[in-house]
Amino acid sequence: PGKYPLVVSTWPFLEAVRAAWRTVDSGLSAMDAIVEGCSACEELRCDGTVGPGGSPDENGETTIDAMIMNGVTMEVGAVAAMRYVSDGIKAARLVMLHTKHTMLVGEQASVFAISMGLPGPTNLSSEESIDKWIKWKENKCQPNFRKNVLPVDGCGPYRAKNTVNLVENICTNSNWLDCGKLWSSHVSPHNHDTISMAVIDKLGHISVGTSTNGATFKIPGRVGDGPIAGSSAYADTEVGACGATGDGDIMMRFLPCYQVVESMRLGMEPKRAAEDSISRIARKYPDFVGAIFAVNKNGVHAGACHGWTFQYSVRSPHMEDVTVYTIVPE
Ligand code: SD4
């Protein structure tokens, strides 16, 4: 049997993989399958962290980071911190198809998406996201993503440490300032955050896409790795593709998916390429939490992770349905 079409996705996002599979198996392009697959996750609100109604920021608002990349043309479209529009992957594709830009951000991304016909403006909050945010507020807003600041009054505003009027002992007994360990509490198997998907279509063309609300209780305006090509995902039809999930604030410093694809270009097997990319991050940030899948143009796939157990999903012509692979950290 042929090696493709093939769909690979972070986490057991079964319905998303099935939607992408149906699309690509019917003969449509990898790009179409990425949009169908990631849209399915947005509609289903996968893990409560993709699409509307997920992970609130410090202000209680849910926003969207998404990206799509065509591994044949190397075109990329992305939206970051997009407000009031829930169709992340479709918005990213509109940026790719109808602009000469690569990324639009914030409310201006929303205005563009709506002007191009996507539904909105809509409220992206849900009862769950508001509930989560209220509990966080009640719990003195911790943990969050700030460092070297002091909350002036309970939940902020914040003041940089060592500025005038600083009350040195505010919150001395709490872990307000301990931002280093945040991700272990934010990112858990029940809080996966990102769909990152790769598809090889019947022509052997490869595309990738991602969609996420980003990090829970992020500082408004924060952009994660999700919309960054080379970080959350990367594709080159001549080589293969990669998808990532985890602590985007750290991972985006390494462009781990670009690294994986380039390592495979130089002849590394997907497994080694994925492990090498993860270990480059772990050497500098031993406490980071993250994972990667790699797939080469022949459909050989592998995963690697650090700080948590990772699962990725695959659908190929050899399978009756989606298969979930579990990778345990070294
Ligand atoms: C981010 N990478 O915004 C995303 C979050 C994630 O599993 O993937 N968590 O940092």
Automatic annotation (TrEMBL):
Q: Which UniProt keywords apply?
A: Autocatalytic cleavage, Hydrolase, Protease, Signal
Q: Which GO terms describe its biological process?
A: proteolysis
Q: Where are the transmembrane segments?
A: none
Hey, where's the site called Cleavage on this chain? 193-194
Entry-linked InterPro entries: Ntn_hydrolases_N, Peptidase_T2
Pfam families linked to this entry: Asparaginase_2
Query: What EC class is this?
Result: hydrolase
Q: What is its EC number?
A: 3.4.19.5
- Does the keyword section mention Iron? no
Domain of life per record:
Eukaryota
Q: Which PANTHER family match?
A: L-ASPARAGINASE (PTHR10188), N(4)-(BETA-N-ACETYLGLUCOSAMINYL)-L-ASPARAGINASE (PTHR10188:SF6)
Subunit record text:
Heterotetramer of two alpha and two beta chains arranged as a dimer of alpha/beta heterodimers.
Q: What is the protein's given name?
A: beta-aspartyl-peptidase
Per the UniProt record, the source organism is: Forsythia ovata
